[in-house]
Write a structure and sequence with these properties.
There is one protein chain. With 321 residues, the protein is mainly β. Helix content is 8%, strand content 54%. The protein has helices at residues 3-18, 33-36, 307-311, and strands at residues 47-56, 64-75, 80-91, 95-111, 114-129, 140-141, 145-146, 159-172, 175-182, 202-209, 211-212, 219-229, 232-243, 246-255, 259-269, 273-285, 293-304. A hairpin with a 6-residue loop joins β11 (211-212) and β12.
């Protein structure tokens, strides 16, 4: 690895360490609702498998990528939904965060047209470090180049920790909303158990509405989201529009440190198969000096339709994009 690239990665790792108590922001939570609020598990009333791939700051060349996959379904026997999810954040050549969890939500009909879900997720978090990709100042002699043994050591064994999260949702007619508290266990992501390595609690509030024009068949799904974690605030506002099989979306999001972006998206939804692509372009950068594109997402969702299951619950129509 060249010296210039090594220094760049060290700066990146320093920034990550400073914000290690915060979750990755994926540009939106569409398709990942179950990981942020387990109460949404089974809310579609059918078996649903989702896969998403993300590239962060692709113009900077840091190799920051993520992959997310999940499956959930509604069960009349359980009177709710059950699911599995896994997310892998690949933070360049140095850090790798792998998370996986199981979720369950209980569905309750509280009135003629009022429904509540209460959900719980149990998960594991594994942080891996590639020691071979890290060069400390003590490892480098300005005259002789790299020296051995290294001046500082970093364990490459990683750490695996247990975590919990819970949430509730409500739905009434075309309206829906939810609140969740994640990282109830607040796990430390390193063996030294310092405060900056602790995963702080994440509070998520979201709401939306379905607007359907029976005359034209056009369906709008506006939604809003607020996330709070360790003093950081993220706000998201957007809408998707569906006409026949074509889906278009436009959203914007803002991070408290001054980073904001606009996110156009497009997709194709046949009912059982959905393909989406979204592109977040940075409008203001705050203290971050990376140019251009913030997040690029490609997603695939496959639904196993079951009309009988959908009849016994109130289906929550989340944004398509």
């Amino acid at each position: 690895m060249g010296l210039r690239k090594t220094i760049t990665l060290l700066c990146l790792v320093a920034n990550v360490a400073a914000a290690v108590s915060q979750d990755t922001w994926y540009g939106s939570v569409t398709g990942m609702e179950m990981m942020y609020n387990p109460a949404y598990t089974g809310s579609s009333g059918e078996g649903r498998m989702s896969i998403s791939c993300y590239s962060f700051l692709p113009g900077a060349g840091f190799g920051l990528q993520s992959v997310y996959a999940s499956y959930d379904d509604y069960s009349q026997t359980l009177h709710g939904g059950a699911g599995l999810w896994v997310a892998d954040d690949m933070m360049g050549e140095v850090l790798n965060d792998l998370r996986a969890g199981m979720t369950y939500s209980y569905h309750l009909k509280a009135g003629r047209n009022l429904f509540f879900n209460a959900g719980l997720t149990a998960s594991v978090v594994h942080r891996g470090i590639n020691r071979g990709a890290v060069t400390f100042p003590g490892d480098y002699d300005p005259f002789g180049g790299l020296i051995s043994p290294p001046g500082e050591t970093v364990s490459d064994a990683g750490s695996t920790l247990f975590d919990l999260g819970s949430g509730v949702t409500f739905s009434s007619g075309p309206w829906y909303g939810g609140f969740a508290v994640m990282h109830l266990a607040q796990p430390y992501l390193d063996d030294n158990r310092q405060d900056y390595n602790r995963l702080e609690r994440l509070y998520t509030f979201n709401a939306g509405r379905v607007i359907l024009s029976e005359r034209t068949g056009l369906e709008l799904r506006p939604s809003a989201l607020i996330m709070l974690q360790d003093g950081n605030i993220i706000t998201y506002l957007g809408s998707s529009a569906s006409f026949r099989e074509l889906v278009l979306g436009l959203a914007g999001w803002y991070v408290r440190d001054g980073f904001s972006a606009i996110e156009p998206s497009a997709g194709w939804n046949t009912g059982s198969l959905k393909i989406t692509l979204s592109y977040s372009y940075g409008l203001s950068r705050g203290d971050v000096s990376f140019p251009g594109t913030a997040v690029v997402k490609a997603g695939l969702s496959v639904s196993l339709n079951n009309v009988e299951k959908r009849k016994v619950i109130h289906v929550i129509k989340l944004p398509d994009l």
